[in-house]
Amino acid sequence: MLEILQKNDDQRILIIHSYCKNDTRIKVLSQDNQGPAVARNNGLKVAKGNYIAFLDSDDWIENNCLEILYNKAIDYNADMVMGNSLFYYDENRIELRYVIPSKFFNSLLTGKECFIELMKSFSYVPMQFNYIYKKSFLIDSNLVFENISHEDELWTLSSMCLAKNILILDLPFYYYRQRIGSIVNGGLTKGQRMNSLFYIVRKLISFSNKFNFDC
């Protein structure tokens, strides 16, 4: 487990360090706030596990679900395993926004097939935390997060289309907290958001030229 904290988050640093004393698998990286992309890239450099999962600081994962995803990944030798995310507004409103057709569950698809089929069924999930990734696949593919807003939309499509195979499970495991003022929900100016999205569109057009997406 890897926790990346900002230097001014003293209380959380003390708590995490207390866990480190009892579990050598936990590592802590402290850094100045440079955004989520830099934090994730730094985490990827030191992570030792065979598979990588991402967890944002205000979200959480259902108990034991990472073990399920990991075991399935090993069974199928998958580059990626896809579960699903629950959008958490409050305890009375939790939504499964992306409904994946059941015909894809426990199916091993190529990355390109997975992207096309999910797009056709309007169930493509652009957030990076909806998946776990084989570390060797990320290294071989030279995948890193770009330090821009909406960086996950570029990362997820790139990783999916480069993957040799992806396993889809019927497993809503990730709780994605929705709050006012977050980067996604109003934390950016209109100009910042548009500049990032235009940049992503240009990158995706360039990336798509490597593939023949016959949708």
Write the layout of secondary structure elements.
Layout: E1 2-6, H1 10-20, E2 27-31, H2 36-46, E3 51-52, E4 60-61, H3 65-76, E5 80-90, E6 93-95, E7 107-109, H4 111-120, E8 131-134, H5 135-140, H6 151-162, E9 166-177, H7 190-208
Parallel strand pairs: 1-2, 5-9
Antiparallel strand pairs: 3-8, 4-9, 5-6, 5-8, 7-9
Quickly list its features.
215 residues; alpha+beta; two-stranded parallel sheet; 7 helices
Description:
- The protein has 215 residues and is of the alpha+beta class.
- It contains 7 helices and 9 strands, in the order βαβαββαβββαβααβα.
- Strands 3, 4, 5, 6, 7, 8 and 9 form a 7-stranded mixed β-sheet that branches. It has a two-stranded parallel sheet with strand order 1-2.
- The longest helix has 19 residues, at 190-208.
- It is globular.
* Overall 3D form: globular
Mean pLDDT equals: 86
Extended strand count: 9
Low-confidence stretches: none
Q: Tally the helices: what do you get?
A: 7
Q: Which structural class matches the secondary elements?
A: alpha+beta
Whole-Å distance between the termini? 39 Å
Strand portion, in percent?
Answer: 15-25%
Query: What is the helix content?
Result: 25-40%
Radius of gyration: 17 Å
- The ordered string of helix (H) and strand (E) elements is EHEHEEHEEEHEHHEH
Largest sheet: 7 strands, mixed
